[in-house]
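CHAIN AND CONFORMATION:
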Amino acid sequence: MKKMKKEIILLGIVIISFIGVFPSIGQAWPPNLPNGQTLILVHGRGDSKGSMNTIRDWADPNVSPTYPVITWEKIYNVEYYGDKPDHPSEFNNVIQGNPGTDGSTIEQFAAAFYTWILGEIFGEQLTKEIYFICHSMGGLIIRYMVKTYMDYYGASIKGVATIGTPNHGSLTALFWSLAFPWDTSLGQCNGAFIEKINKNDETPNNAKWYTYAGDKLWSWLDWKWFDGVVTPFSSSLSGAQVNRVYSLDHTQLRQNWGVYTQIVYDFRYN
């Protein structure tokens, strides 16, 4: 009898130790963050907020109740271009002369985001815990905003996931910027702006940063170098919690369920 009790106690210790080493065992997947978190989705250059609808739907239990979801208090899928009639910008209500598609700089978009966040997020007195999922140039906008403007509110930003963001430049963007020199923000995806945003600290403030890159140009070409726009090296950040790479192209990265659930997991556990 005593021997059996010892064996039961030993088995209990082994199970508890196993769960401690592998925290996802015995926990819901995807894991629920506490109530009151705010998620902000940021699209890429030349796109609209419609390009982030897939992630928005996965995150929103009212749209996709069959998917396991994080309990976000509020989800914002933001249109930051002020001149797209089919997708009116949320910024137009709070910013006069919201930056448009051509000629506007990443600095202008970042300043607009900061003004909007102060009025919309903190003005509504929502939770002070904010998470971002950004695609492509959207990641540069948020990185610049956090680095430049968020000294006071920086502690409110808990996690930033950048998907296919040219954090260290893009040869594809360089080529197209030569063809379309009036597109100022496109030209900033290389050169002096990239040097400025990476100077001293690539992952500013106390936020946790996560990068997700693709290395597949076309589905039929097994050429693992870049996603058609950004290389995995360019996407990665020194100081990030994780720098992950997937066999996906630039568009597939923001449409892939596996990438989204990994972001959720990383927000929770990394």
Observations:
- Confidence is low (pLDDT under 50) at residues 2-31.
- Strands lie at 37-42, 72-78, 130-135, 157-163, 208-214, 216-218, 221-224, 242-246.
